[in-house]
Amino acid sequence: MLKDIIVAIQSYYQAHQFIVKHRLWKWILVPGIIYSLLFCAGIYLFWISSGNAIDYVLSITGLKKWMNAMEEGWLKFLFIFGQVILNLVLILFYFSLFKFLFLIVGSPLFAYLSEKTAAIMEGKEFPFSFAQLLKDISRGIKLALRNAFWQTVYVVSILILSFIPFFGWFTPLFALLIECYYLGFSMLDYNCERNKLSASQSAAFISDHKGLAIGNGIVFYTMHWVPVAGWILAPSYAVIAATISMHKIGQA
Question: Do 242 and 184 form a contact (C-beta atoms < 8 A)?
Answer without folding.
Answer: yes
